[in-house]
What does this fold into?
Amino acid sequence: MTIKEITNYLEMIAPGAFQEGYDNSGLIVGRPEMEVTGVVVCLDSTEHVIDEAIAKKCNLVIAHHPIVFKGLKRFNGRNYVERTIIKAIKNDIAIYAIHTNLDNVFRKGVNTKIAERIGLVNTQILAPKQNLLKLFCFVSTDKSDVLRAKLFEAKAGVVGETTDLSYASLGVGTQKGSGSGQVKLEVIFEAHRKNQLIRLLQENLSPDELVYDIVKIENQNPHVGSGMVGDLAKAMSPLSFLKKLKESMRIDCIKYTRLPDKNVKRIAVCGGSGGFLLRHAISAKADVFITADYKYHEYFDADGQIVIADIGHYESEQFTINLIFDILSKKFPTFAPASAESRLFKTEINTNPVNYL
It folds into this structure.
């Protein structure tokens, strides 16, 4: 099995195009065609994790956080990033990161995992993205069914869990001296598939038939975006909920704003640094917003409208390791723990750089 086979599957769940502009998800070190001897899943690909991969004879580290966020000009080992990259290259170990693209998907995403652990129901994306386009193309009636099927196969007409969505209107296409029956096909698709769909049209329509429009639409994609919001099965007192949160997320410390004199039920979450979503959480009428990395003055922005609960960056995303591990073990059973010689491991290294006394 090659690295490309594994990463291609992960990117079917969380396409690289869904990552934020500042991010660096993808294969950071290594060759896609390299045969995989074993995988270590972690939150951060530090030097100690590379040592762990060496000890376990694994040549692929899959991390949530990219070890490299910006360009490196020298490799002198002067900091932990350079040292980690040098050690990985020297030992022929690949590093792959699946970061904000995994944050931004509803199904099998980071925030879905958090929501599951704290028992949220009726969940939905907190800040959906507008990443949908619409394709209009014209095709003769005798070719329309075949072309529609190929568009569906290329993942056009997919919104969330709903597939094979299209609209067709019958008309007459004319040219000088003649007219013939034509179908106008309309399908919605995610923006990162644009070039793929244009190639499909070019391959299946003659130059005379190749007439199409692609337009941006304002519809939000309910299955792609930042954060998540949902409901507790039963309303709880704010303090009882925070105690449950500590237990569910296995954390020692929560920093939070003033608690209201009423029960809480609607909860917003964002793994990692989610302060940018506060206004979305308030608009969604959430009683509590769970995230991390708040600065002192930012807590005032709760302004009595919501409880901000900062549980720590590592703590909020620690179960992403389980998420990635489960995704891989179900798809690739030869790597699964039940196999005679498991080649898929969850890191034993706690990479949290923050300690509490």
The chain is about 25% helix and 30% strand. The mean pLDDT is 93.
